[in-house]
Amino acid sequence: MNTFARQSCCLALSSALLICCGLVQAQTYQWKDASGKTIISDTPPPSNVQKKRSVGVQQPKLTTGTPASETDENNTEKEGSSAAQPSTPATMAEKDLEFRKRQQEAKEKADKEAKEAAATRARRDNCDRARANYRMLQSDIPVIVGDKDMSQKQRQQEMERTRRIMQESCK
């Protein structure tokens, strides 16, 4: 094997090792135990721990499910706690989730507005057609239905039907 091949092989192995090292990074947890000591471990904390967080790997915030009154009491003991921080998304996953939610809401709003605009156009078109038909029925222009002229009674019935359409569409 020549030196160029050895160097290429060595470089490829080094790159693979670096990539694997990045993927092997373990999840680290941090919490305070009952005596107030801060514990950092690679095993998740017990379920009764109130304030816990992941260190090293970004994950969504964990909710503890404690009532607001209990958290207020805990916060008065420790000024500057994390509850005093603004409720902005802390992780990329939360930010991405909120972004997708905003996108979905915007899409739904645009779809709703498009449907309303289409319905408004349809009503306006129906109104315009009904007005034109009504003007034509009021005039003395003969209207042919099938192969016969429309009778006066049929004309009156059609005018009444057209009036109802105008009342519904021309609001």
Defining key terms:
single chain; 171 residues; mainly alpha; three-stranded antiparallel sheet; two-stranded antiparallel sheet; 56% helix
Mean pLDDT: 77
SSE pattern: HEEEHHEEH
Sheet with most strands: strand arrangement: 2-1-3
General shape: elongated
Rounded to an integer, what's the Rg over CA atoms?
37 Å
Number of strands: 5
Give the termini distance in whole angstroms: 88 Å
Largest sheet: 3 strands, antiparallel
Which strand-content bin applies to the residues? 5-15%
| Parts with pLDDT < 50 across at least 5 consecutive residues | 74-83
Structural class: mainly alpha
Assign a percent range to the helix content. Answer: 55-70%
Verbal overview:
β1 (28-32) and β2 form a beta hairpin. This protein has helices spanning 3-23, 68-77, 92-138, 152-169; strands spanning 28-32, 38-41, 52-55, 144-145, 148-149. By secondary structure, the chain is mostly helical. The longest helix is centred in the last third of the chain and has 47 residues, at 92-138.
Question: Could you give the topology of this structure?
Answer:
Elements: H1 3-23, E1 28-32, E2 38-41, E3 52-55, H2 68-77, H3 92-138, E4 144-145, E5 148-149, H4 152-169
Antiparallel strand pairs: 1-2, 1-3, 4-5
How would you briefly describe this protein structure?
The chain is mainly alpha-helical. It is built from 4 helices and 5 strands.
